[in-house]
Amino acid sequence: MEIGFETIGNATLICHDQVPVLITDPWIAGSAYFGSWIFSHEIPEEQLQSIAKAQYAWISHGHPDHLSRDSLPMLRDKTILLPNHVGGRIAADLKQEGYRVQVMQDRTWYKLSDRIRVLCIADYYQDGILLIDVNGRLLADLNDTSDRGWGPFVRNTITQYKTSFLLHLSGFGDADMINCFDEQGQRIPPPAAKKLPVGKQIAFQLAMFPTRYFIPFSSMHRYQREDSVWAEEYTTKLSDYPFGFDSKTSELLPAFIRYDCANDTYVSLAPPERSRSIRSPAEFGDDWEEQLDAVDVQKITRYFRAIEHLSGHFDFLNFRVGKKDHIVELSSRKFHRAITFEVPRHSLMTAIHWEIFDDLLIGNFMKTTLHGSFSKTGLYPDFTPYVAKYADNGRAKSKEELEAYFTNYRQRAPFEFLRARIESLAKELIRGSFDPDSSVYHFARRTYVAALKLKSKKNRAVIRTARQRVPLQFATEE
């Protein structure tokens, strides 16, 4: 390809300028989430060769369908570009393993080739977005993110391009903890069970980020473990994306394409679905009968008690391993809320050792029982973000560390940070109180979209600032 891009795999872009220049989130081998996930479609040999030849690889965040341990050996000869996450865990770990790493400063254009430049923004959820200019066409790679303050900047940037693409997670919503139960042992139906039209969700995303095209992205996986394959019915098939889509300004493209940025044409790559066999948990080291020992319990207790926020919102956490309960007391007050996690020992202790508890939540073989009063958002906002985002990846566990963590992100863009936090609290209140198909929920959603559209019109009246081009500078090793 002379100049353009391809989409393939789960969240992989391949950008070309005569030769392959950049790849994103290369999950191209192995499984993810303790063997629970595989990617849904084969990656053709031609694209695998382009991935191997690319000079740069950008990794958005630490989830294993984006930062794949099995795929890392293919990145040895590349410069790995990373968002500037507070805590710097991924950068430090990769540098220690001998990889060449460049941390990208927020909102700065980096020139990768004559006709390709990139801009990255990290946010306080330990996610990252990448804006890619390929020969004057804009690709907005938002992968798994939600707007954490960078939305206005991205919308303003989109208005500067005649041809633009939005690549974003969409679907029914299985890519999080949905294996939840009430105290009576009844499964709590996940929002994904409603199977609301995915096309309508995409139209909503395009109202927030009004690009010319939308490409389904970061959603291409299947389940393969015997204890998680139940969630397969909630995954999103390629045929699900167009249903309900209606837009007067944007077009929905196929998930896997080759786009020519010289003449603005594309072809569908149409890779075959990946064959799948249902695999035993034992193949990934898990035995549901294996029990914890005393040292394991001490490690689990230290891990969760170190995250100070939990004690203000949960009384205890119970780990049911090998059919035996182990209580981690967090508070001595009268019982209000608690969680039981039923999980095999090997995966649990691996998650504790490497501080990757989110991998258990997303794998959906761990069974989670909610005790006491929980909103419709379940483990949000008081468990998952504080454990998986701020503590594990951001290295912020104490109150003082959390304050410093948020101060760092706030200082990068004070007004946008404050706006994002207020919007996040409002969204959590609505999502936690109202059903997604209730009239109140839909009214709030329509009001939000209307406000965004008004803002977008105003943006187009603003004089476009000159584009800053900054040559890529590599960090000097100390």
Describe it for me?
By secondary structure, this protein is an alpha/beta fold. It has a domain at 3-279: Metallo-beta-lactamase, Chain A (4-Layer Sandwich), CATH 3.60.15. 28% of the residues lie in helices and 23% in strands. It has 11 helices and 23 strands. It has helices at residues 45-53, 89-96, 151-158, 198-208, 294-305, 345-354, 357-363, 384-393, 399-412, 414-433, 439-461; strands at 3-8, 12-17, 19-24, 37-39, 56-58, 79-83, 100-104, 110-111, 116-122, 128-134, 137-143, 164-169, 180-181, 213-217, 221-223, 251-252, 257-260, 265-268, 316-321, 324-329, 337-342, 367-372, 470-471. The strands form 4 sheets. It has an 8-stranded mixed β-sheet with strand order 7-6-5-3-2-1-17-18, with helices on one face. A hairpin with a 2-residue loop joins strand 19 (316-321) and strand 20. Helix 6 crosses helix 7 (357-363) and helix 9 crosses helix 10. It is globular. It starts with a strand and ends in a 7-residue tail after the last strand.
